[in-house]
Amino acid sequence: MSSSEDGFLDPNASDDEVMAASGDSDFEDTPRLRTRQKTNPKAAKSSKFTHLTHNPVTGKRKRAQVVASPIPPRQEQGERRGMFDDDDEENNGDEYDSDDEGPRQITGSEFLTKLLAWKTRPVKDLGGLELKADHTARPLWIDNHGRITLERFSPIAEQAQDFLVAIAEPVSRPTFIHEYRVNEYSLYAAMSVGLETKDIVEVLSRLSKTPLPQSLIRDIHRWTAAYGKVKLVLKRNRYFLESSVPEMIQRLLADSQIRACRITQVQGDDTSNLVHGVESAPKPTASGLLIPGTTEARRANALATGQNVEDAPAHETVDDVLGAVIGLDRADEMDEDDQVQSFEIDGDRMEKVKRQCQEIGLPVLEEYDFRADNINQNLEIDLKPMTVIRSYQETSLSKMFGNGRARSGIIVLPCGAGKTLVGITAACTIKKSVLVLCTSAVSAQQWKQAFIQFTNIQDKQISIFTSQSADMFSGADSGAAGIVISVYSMVAFTGKRSHSSETFMNFLKSREWGLLLLDEVHVAPATAFRKCVESLRTHAKLGLTATLVREDDRISDLNYIIGPKLYEANWMDLAQKGHIANVQCAEVWCPMTPEFYAEYLLAKSRARIVMQAMNPNKFQACQFLINYHERRGDKIIVFSDNVYSLMQYAQKLGKAAIHGGTDERERMRILARFQHDPNMNTIFLSKVGDTSIDLPEATCLIQISSHYGSRRQEAQRLGRILRAKRRNDEGFNAFFYSLVSKDTSEMYYSTKRQGFLVDQGYAFKIITELHGIDLLPDLVFKTQKDQLELLGSVLNETEKVNIEMEDEEDAYDFIDNAAGKQRFGGGIKPANRMTGSMQNLAGGSMMTYQENSINMNRRIKRDDRAAAKSGKGARHEIFRKDKRPRQD
Ligand SMILES: Nc1ncnc2c1ncn2[C@@H]1O[C@H](COP(=O)(O)OP(=O)(O)OP(=O)(O)O)[C@@H](O)[C@H]1O
User: Where do Acidic residues bias regions lie (predicted)?
Assistant: First the structure.
């Protein structure tokens, strides 16, 4: 690794040198960064490759070469049981997670439940299963609970992976070993793309090193038996459950909860037919649908218009393995000429019905035969001739439209991989009215711009429905098709609306939507938003996300709210192909100064967050990294969830910052300068920048404060640099640093946050020392005096945080007191809390100092509020406690 003369990292160093670290070399030897490596422990490494004797998938024989499995089978080592016993997946620690709240104590009964679950957890058991003679040629280990381990170094790993993605949930995909899990939901998804039970069992058997456990075969049969037998169909704004198997209808009606949601026949209405109303199943149109933007579609178009047909080979949409064994068109044959029976259900209780169907083992299939829909008007929308979708975008869409109809479900692509274009292409394929729901008004605008950029749609055919805008698209009144883009909170809102908003909402509810696009679909199960889907009449639903994770247990609800996961791309594969940037990730450990640490130990949890972020050593590390990466020509985003720290850092280091309170014009100005001005290479962002900020110039990201253990936030932040413009430059890497105050709760949360990315194959290096940092000219907070002054102002800030907290606690005090009165027949005064003397603790002779009883603090704050309310004006600034003169 090269170094510059002034002793710190050479700004001309190559990416590999920067993270010399990253070399898989011994980090202790690197002169600049002292690191350790933190990767997925499940990753195994091999320098040898297994060569096939024959292809277990196709059965074709290949020339046999060396047969040497990098992981010696345990059987050969005399260990046949408990091969994977060392990891305990059942307890993934999520009880400490929360999306929006901090850590939570688990109760005694929860603990006992967890303990019981742990004790009775299924053990990966390959015991009793003989290894096949040619096991080294087969890439999978499969246990009796459907857990599958793929040897990624196998020559047929690619094909096996494509098959596994179709039938199982990826659990973890580091470089050499991938882990998947087959369960009922993953099999519903497999069935929905046309796979059949016997194909699944057969291919798994071929790929497995051991015979498939009988219990797993039974489970696969059980889970797949009823799939597709019950359909949910929208007809003239009303929902029907239908099936061509009479027993299924009987089973549905036998369930009291489903029966309660049934709408019985309305007089004179022949469409709300019940069980006895028998009608012909709509004949599925022959597949042969061309998805716009694909090579095939462009060839067909060229032929039709007499242009030169390009020589470019068609994208491989369906893997050979799948194509060979499943024949996707089989789904078309399903139900043909069958007689279906149906009954109507209450659309407002659709979620309940779908959940119940799932629970009784009859998951509903939602498919939209849009080409046969003559009721809803068509939308004239097509991709512009210049728009070409990428191979993985095409593959994901082929899972949705594989049988010529639109299946509802979820597509998971990494951040920056182009989910918007996938949604837009789906809209161009269905060509009916589209409703897009996203998470913010900024996102809504971006969706509109993307529609206009990629398609021939006119501005007037798109409406944005947010708190600021509720203009109808042209022709909406006369039933014309169009596009509406809105935000979840707008549609979910249940309070009193303005007149225009009420009218718009009624319009949304009154018509059928061909396609509902749900951006960031992982938010849909949130209590506030789940009614959104139910309140709208939609034929097909497509959820898009990069991070199909929630820190609560509701992610699986998406199976019935939206549909199964149709496709999930592999982040590392897309990075290798240059669709997203390669990222080097590092966690930088910053020891706290003794004074900060002493105060930290005494502080309350919220105050601790500020102290962790403001640790002077972290400040210096941030300055060092900014300096270093600016000299390399990188553009840097620094993230801080804590706005106080964000502003302190930005001011001290002389950089621009954007947070929730920054006004729109200022925001746009800063972002534009960051993009185009070579003198503005670093910006500070609060969590407003976590999503929906498209800055392809950014190549380096530094995180100084984050939201507890949110795996999603970590991935979304990483997503800001995955779209780096320079990603295809040779050897280019983007950089992601997470600065962590050592020996604080940040260490724990940091590890949790990385979980998702580690499962995607990212390796986090741990940097314990930034060499040369002391030589940085103008290093901030270098002297103890500066550090103590910083501590003083931080304590002032944390004092405010404490007061806010105590106001909250007042409410609890009140409850406690009331309960105390009841219990003890009299008021029990809660104990007074006193702020400690920080001067003594921190040797803070240079600091602002005050010592107030907490009651005094409360009183000051209440007085302020009362004065402000009464209009008499708050006390003069000079008397505000944090502005009081120093008492040296
Ligand atoms: N097929 C394509 N051709 C050209 N550009 C594309 C294509 N697909 C995506 N892009 C571009 O890639 C960038 C990222 O796309 P997009 O914003 O849709 O990503 P995303 O997956 O929604 O990311 P995030 O989850 O972070 O919001 C955009 O600038 C988009 O125009």
Answer: 85-100
